[in-house]
Design a protein that fits this description.
This protein has 11 helices and 6 strands. The protein is of the alpha+beta class and 254 residues long. The chain folds into 2 domains: 145 residues, Cathepsin B, Chain A (Alpha-Beta Complex), CATH 3.90.70; 93 residues, no CATH class.
Length: 254
């Protein structure tokens, strides 16, 4: 198995190369991807993202998922955050983790200070960690339930389609708790604050589902243009009202 030995603070590079089983990225590539990632998500280059390995956006993306998608665009990379992996798998309707990643059994594991890869061979999961570059077996259930660990998964299109459908059910189930039209309900939520003000994971459900749908439907789809446009104007105060309308659309109609 391919594992690199730690150099400086370059564990992101080592984890990606272990995940892809080869020297596919250099540190200069990481820095270029970081600049593109920050520009797309309006993240200042001085943001803590540079140092916090557990940083992720509302749509389940991080610097590592951004790079993963560039290297393997036929897979959808998703963050399951530290200490909430099992909870988020439940939100996504995943009952059997091995089944979720069965056709490509490899993940990246992270905490606030470090990231490494794990691969499954047969029935065993192996840790490929630049801080301990000799592979060793480790129970995947302990990773999924560790309060200090999060994971990044690379999902196939059929799996992403199923998860996006389950997120839609979550969103509809939440909105059905309110009387009146869904559109009015969501518009009221947006006019008073973020989606997260209404429910602690509604914003994640909405943005993750939108990113999934954009990825599934392709770069030229209207859904992908909506996803990109939402991020294009998200921080422009003079266009906030238009952006709220787009988010409402993404919740109710997309």
């Amino acid at each position: 198995m391919y594992v690199e030995r730690q150099v400086g603070n370059q564990c992101r590079r080592h984890a990606l190369n272990a995940f892809f089983q080869g020297g596919v990225v250099q540190w200069g590539d990481i820095e270029k991807h970081a600049a593109d990632f920050e520009a797309f998500y309006h993240i200042p280059s001085t943001n803590q993202m540079r140092n916090d390995y557990d940083f992720f956006n509302a749509d389940g993306s991080s610097l590592i998922t951004w790079i993963g998608h560039k290297l393997l665009p036929e897979r959808f990379f998703l963050v399951l955050p530290c200490g909430r992996v099992r909870e988020w798998l439940d939100h996504l309707g995943v009952k059997d983790f091995d089944e979720c990643v069965d056709d490509d059994p490899r993940i990246m594991v992270f905490n606030a200070d470090h990231v490494y890869a794990m691969l499954r061979r047969g029935n065993q999961w192996y840790v490929l960690d630049s801080l301990s570059p000799t592979p060793y077996t480790y129970p995947i259930d302990r990773v999924l339930t560790d309060a200090k660990l999060g994971i990044i998964v690379a999902l196939s299109p059929p799996t992403v389609s199923n998860l996006a459908f389950h997120l839609e059910k979550n969103i509809v189930g939440f909105l059905n708790k309110f009387p009146g039209l869904h559109l009015h309900t969501v518009a009221r939520i947006l006019s008073n604050g973020r989606l997260g003000d209404a429910h602690d994971t509604l914003e994640n459900w909405v943005f993750t589902r939108l990113r999934m749908s954009a990825w599934l439907r392709g770069k030229t789809s209207r859904t992908n243009r909506l996803f990109r446009h939402v991020h294009l104007i998200e921080n422009y105060k003079e266009e906030k009202e238009d952006n709220d309308k787009l988010l409402t659309y993404s919740v109710v109609f997309s």
